[in-house]
Design goal:
nine-stranded mixed sheet, five-stranded parallel sheet, alpha/beta, 14 strands, 384 residues, single chain
Length: 384
Amino acid sequence: MIDRGFWINEINKTWKQTPIVWLTGVRRSGKTTLCRTFADAKYLNCDLRQTAVLVEDPEVFYRSVKEPIVVFDEIHQLDDPSRLLKIGADVFPHLRILATGSSTLAATKKFRDTLTGRKRSVVLTPVLFHELPAFGIKDLRDRLFRGGLPKALLANESDEGFYGEWLDSYFARDIQELFHVEKRAGFLRLLEAMLRQSGGLAELSNFAKTCSLSRPTVLNYLEVFQMTHVVHVLRPYHGGGRQEILQQPKIFGFDTGFVRYANGWNDLREADCGTLWEHLVLDVLLTYAPAGRIHFWRNKQKQEVDFVIARGRQAADAIECKWRAAAFDPGALRAFRLLHPAGRNIVLAPDLSAALHKKIGGLEVDFIPLEQLPEIITTPGDSQ
């Protein structure tokens, strides 16, 4: 079994804060396999009818548990999952509870209680950059091409049928069961359109026209995409300047393999690699950066900084993603710093083997390998 020690550690750290960990992430991201690594746990597959019978009386069930950990895999399949979890947390505080689902906990109406103060979420992303050695992946292009879902990444060869089958399963299991969306064709057409434009500005009216959907329907489906982790929405960073983009967000698909598949790329050109590299960086940011602090920046002259991490007190770290470090042009970063002078300037590129500090265009810039990014973004930085 592949060691995913980082995620085990995240779950254990979260248990120190609350008795319930909500382990979520897209279908087939490895949640069940991760749950199975806890040898001292009582594991229950909530897809099985016998599990519903077993937990019908929560107090009787919990009293029978001898293990220190209880795992409820796909707990939303049960009739009243919030009651089961609440009783476990309140009446049996010595137990650690791990519950999984492919969406945010609030996505299902079955959760009549938000479990405030009793649970925290851990969002399992596709395989992270620093996990690639554990998966035996040495070719970064292979990770970008196949994506980060373990089954696709570990297959002997790339299987195009996997992506279409996954989309069918996603709609049938995650969408139909939780949201009762009726327009399957329009829903998946919109998702594929957003995957094709992943990393770009969200033109909702264009999406509505292209997919033959109303704008309110597009907004509704976009919220569903976010709840089920298949699309990430980033808001622009701004200080209210008239030349800055203030409202229009950017959208990112959840996985490089699906972005590549939706675009019909049979191989990856350098420009494609640059686009997908940005997605890989975003996975790291989503894992480590404080929630709600990941943005991008763009002005009306179309100068853009890939990611901006808000630091508070008007300081912000600016992050540029380049497939090759030598391709970095400081023009957009310089325009950003004229308006927002405080914060660190970071360039990430896969051809960097060690950190470098340079002065370019009057800016102090740190060129760093991606594996060093977690330490950078979790450490308070000095203003430039």
